């Protein structure tokens, strides 16, 4: 009797065109046939529609070299310091020049575009900030050496 009722409740009615389970529950009942061959195409389409319709989704921000930004400061009393984008070191990370001898590496979420004027003294011989690490210091020194050889 239970198998008969399950089949009846999942079968579309000739008058309404919908099964009793869809009318009552808003969805068809699961059967053994659903476990053997699930409707993956419908599931994928529903998820794609959900993702396309989501609000608040914004594209990844991009900064250009030479652009003025406010960089998050973790070492002083001021939370944000003005700086200039010096280089993009990864898809989301940048080198920011915040002073004559201060270069920070920051992620895009630690930077904000700004129109604040920054005194740029174009000092490319500045030593990298200590948070860059030993490998970055060595690369910076090699770059300085190659520049001095070219100019001589």
**Helix-strand pattern:** HHHHEEEEEH
> Which percent band covers the strand fraction?
15-25%
Counting DSSP H or I runs of 4 or more residues, the number of helices is 5
- The gyration radius over C-alpha positions equals 30 Å
Number of strands: 5
Mean pLDDT: 79
InterPro entries: Retrovirus_Pol_polyprotein
Would you summarize the structure shown here?
The chain contains five helices and five strands.
Word description of this protein:
Helix content is 34%, strand content 20%. It is built from 5 helices and 5 strands. With 152 residues, the protein is of the alpha+beta class. The longest helix is centred in the C-terminal third of the chain and has 18 residues, at 134-151. Among the domains are: 1-52, no CATH class; 67-113, SH3 type barrels (Roll). It has helices at residues 2-10, 20-25, 32-36, 40-53, 134-151, and strands spanning 68-72, 80-88, 93-99, 102-107, 111-113. A hairpin with a 4-residue loop joins strand 2 and strand 3. The chain has a 5-stranded antiparallel sheet with strand order 4-3-2-1-5, with no helix packed on it. The chain is rod-shaped, with a radius of gyration of 30 Å. Residues 114-152 are annotated as: Disordered. Residues 140-152 have a biased composition (Basic residues). InterPro entries: Retrovirus_Pol_polyprotein.
């Amino acid at each position: 009797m239970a198998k008969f009722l399950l089949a009846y409740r999942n079968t579309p009615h000739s008058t309404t065109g919908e099964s009793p389970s869809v009318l009552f529950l808003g969805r068809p009942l699961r059967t053994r046939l659903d476990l053997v061959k699930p409707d993956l195409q419908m599931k994928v389409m529903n998820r794609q529609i959900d993702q396309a319709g989501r609000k608040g989704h914004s594209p990844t921000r991009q900064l250009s070299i030479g652009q003025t930004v406010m960089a998050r400061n973790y070492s002083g009393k001021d939370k944000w310091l003005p700086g200039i984008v010096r280089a993009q070191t990864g898809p989301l990370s940048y080198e920011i020049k915040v002073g004559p001898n201060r270069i920070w590496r920051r992620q895009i979420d630690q930077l904000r575009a700004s129109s604040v004027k920054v005194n740029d003294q174009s000092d490319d011989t500045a030593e990298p900030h200590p948070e860059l690490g030993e490998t970055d210091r060595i690369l910076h020194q090699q770059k300085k050496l190659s520049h001095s050889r070219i100019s001589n």
